[in-house]
Amino acid sequence: HPKMFFLGSWVPGLAWGWALLDALLQGLVGACGISVLCSLLKVYLYIQSLNEPERQAEKEALRAQRRVLEPLHVAVLMGVLAVVGSRVAALVVLEFSLRALSTLLSLRKGAHRSQLYLLCQFSLGCGLSCGLSFLLEGAPHRTCSLGLAAGLAGLLAAYARRLARHVCTLYELHSRERYCGVCILLLATGHGIPRLLRRALAITFGVADLAAVALINRDFLSTAEAIRFWTPLTLCYALLVSYMQGQK
């Protein structure tokens, strides 16, 4: 029947459209997570630069307002994370987790924990994306759930950016005059931002690693096939981490 043929031709396109929307929403959540991390790091670095006169150039760079570039950065990251997909994101998460483990083991040899905050940004977006993909797999209202997650992530990113702008513009004055509650709170607890970020990242990557393993194992038809994949990969990464430890 012509009408049935017409409707049938629309079904694959409709399914593809929903899949694209889901991928974009997952990418938006990951991009907003990266934006929150960058904003909180900016707040912490600016507060620290006020206590060290030799970091005045860094302070001025942090104060530079980039109102157009910040939303553009989120949009580009959203597109990249949507294109990457959950399987590639899973591999990125596992690779970063091993590099992070190597860096943490090297702390006694002079490595700085702050390096992880710079290295983990894209991996954080991949971790949030593949974590959502795994947790919402087969959910009856997957798109609605992703929409709510994206809305919440967008609000958090917007508030974090507003906090960063407020701190870089007014913190120096407000912390001296002691009449802004936000700046007084940061004056008392701002040094704890790295600890907060470490805990949040540890939880995020813990969930993302489990999701990544589950997503990769989903493509194997048997346990033997999964073992043939994971054994050489684990050995190669173990040798890589061992080599990196030797170089440090």
UniProtKB/TrEMBL annotation:
PANTHER family: TRANSMEMBRANE PROTEIN 82. InterPro entries: TMEM82. It holds the Pfam family TMEM82. The chain crosses the membrane at residues 68-94, 114-136, 143-160. It comes from the Eukaryota. Keywords: Membrane, Transmembrane, Transmembrane helix. This is TMM82 protein.
